[in-house]
Amino acid sequence: MKNKLLRYLIRRFFLYLIIFLISLTAFFFFLNLVPGDPVTRYVQELEARYGLATPVSEEIIKEYKEAFGLDKNLFARYTSYLKRLVLNFDFGPSFVAFPTPAFQLILDAFPWSIGLLGVAVIVSWTLGILLGTILGWKRESKGASFALVLGLILSQVPTYLLALILVMVFSFVLGIFPMGGAYSPLIEKGFNLRYIIDLLYHAFLPAMSLILVYTFGTMISQRALVINILGEDYIKLAEAKGLKSNRLISRYILRNTLLPQTTGLALSLGFIVNGFFLIEWIFNYPGIGRLFMTAIRQMDYNVLMGITVNTMFWVLTANFIIELLYPLIDPRIRR
Amino acid sequence: MRIFKSSPKFTVGVIIISILIVIALLEPTINNHRLGGHSSTEIGLYETSLPPSKEHPFGTDAYGRDVFSLILTGLKYSLLIGFIAGGLATLIAVVLATTAGYKGGWLDAFITTVSNAILIIPSWPILAIIVLFVRKVDLFFLSLILAFFSWAGSSRQIKPQIASLKERPYVELARVTAFSDIEIMFKEILPNFLPYIFVGFSYAVTGTMMAETALRLVGLGPADIPSLGQILNWALYAGALAQGHYFLVLTPIVILILLFVSINLINVGLDEVYNPRLKQITGV
Question: In terms of Cα–Cα distance, which of A86, A216, A232 is closest to A154?
Fold first, then answer.
């Protein structure tokens, strides 16, 4: 029934909006209830760091507070923040790169992160499901138990620690991969083969630190799912009636594991992004994560706020898109 | 103790984590003996950047500290924060999951929505900003906010079990004999579900330790609590990689990985034993 599908989609959409609004509000109020305002804090940080003897004049602080709208009360600040955010994605200016808008900095960094993260997540998820299915199907073989042990270890390594190991081994000890950055400093940018190869060369280690961990993570969960399904009566029936194993795997097994695996992916996206911030920092990769770490060091309030709200928004949106795919995967939702 | 026999994974996990816990417990004695009463974080106690030797098995770092002692201290604090924060997170998870699973209705819907929100949104940047802006971060505050962002994961492990326990005959019986809800929750349901609470706890310990290590690795949080992440941060900032002091970077990483892997082995082992369906199929 079309009606039911529509109801499902609308309900999901509202839930998505509510979760975003709750997270945003909780985050905003928490940050604003911490004593001290960002401008004063930033000035204090500068004074402490550079040992400035003459204190910054109160007037200048006051002027900046007005420019950032910090002189209003908490509720007025909240409504104006929401209004600016919804109407024109305005997160306020960056403190350090004043008067560049924080959103501009985020937009510049965004393609790098989404490119690397997107490819790594899709590759590891697909590869993990394939490997896990083979592992569950041929669980008696010697190779399978070796892969299982390897998976049990690798899937538990935090991506940022693996990144440290990889950069240590391949960049510092062996020297076969670059220590960081997204491209060589003197290369001619543009759509040419040398630049593309250079990009891939620089992205390889950061991508591998994510791919290795999540491929094996997905493999382990897929193996468990496959083994569970193999015990079902309908599989025994299908085998008994002489169904070819190719068809059994694609129609009966993969199809039934797709839903839990999609849910698993949706739920772990936030966690993957958490680790990705550090991977970018370790490899000095010019995406959102590195921008965030720079902003942390400089106490650049608007950029920090902007990045957090943006990552929240995009991860939630990715989740919502995945939920839109559910009716395709699971016909029960359609009916 | 039948579980040790039936699951080698569980046994290996328990052995590794026990060794690490014993080492952490012995840390004060060992370091007192090795450093003669000095703190392992005291700067300039020895010559800087010594290679591994009999006296300093892992050498010394760029600040003149004995790396072996430093790492022992780091292990102690990493475990301490993991266990305190993990314990707090499990407590929150148990209370909320029991309430949600047992009461149902709008309360269940609300708790589930909040816990999903915490699970879905990338919480680490938020955690980093909180630690950055709250000036005085001590062990307890750090554990508390780590717990706040990781209870949802362990609640996800616990809640389905509560929902199934609720339907068991002895709970029905208790309800008919007019026990109060609180009494049923704590007297009938909780004791039967300690294994699941334990699984929730170990998820929370891993989660909080990972988040804590990540925070300290980038130099956030209380520098006077030298956990393994903090030690890694010191090593990276002193240029340990460029100078070839790989020991200093690799050892904390290996210990952390051992912690995470052993806890996961325990979880997998418990799942194999307490999930009879899986056991029947795999034949372990």
Answer: A216
Interface test with A, best of B118, B120, B154, B270 (most A CBs within 10 A): B120
- Residues B208-232: tens digit of each pLDDT: 999 999 999 998 988 888 999 999 9
- Interface check for A173 against chain B (CB to CB < 8 A): the answer is yes
Q: pTM, whole model, 2 decimals?
A: 0.88
Confidence band for A60, pLDDT divided at 50, 70 and 90:
confident
Domain that holds residue B216: 2-31+64-282
> Which CATH number goes with the domain that contains B171?
1.10.3720.10
Q: Is B21 helix (H, G, I), strand (E, B) or coil?
A: helix
B57 falls within a domain: no
Least CA distance to A14: which residue of chain B? B113
ω into A93 cis (within 30 of 0): no
| Structure token digits, residue B86 | 């993990």
The mean pLDDT of A211-217, rounded to a whole number, is 95
Express each pLDDT in A103-148 by its tens digit: 888 888 899 999 999 999 999 999 999 999 999 888 888 888 888 8
Say if B77 falls within a structural domain: yes
Are B124 and A316 within 8 A, CB to CB?
no
User: How much is the ipTM here?
Assistant: 0.88
* Cβ contact, residue pair A315, B124, below 8 Å: no
Residue B143 maps to a domain: yes
Backbone angles phi, psi at A233, to 5 degrees: -65, -35
- Quick check: is B43 in a domain? no
Number of domains in chain B: 1
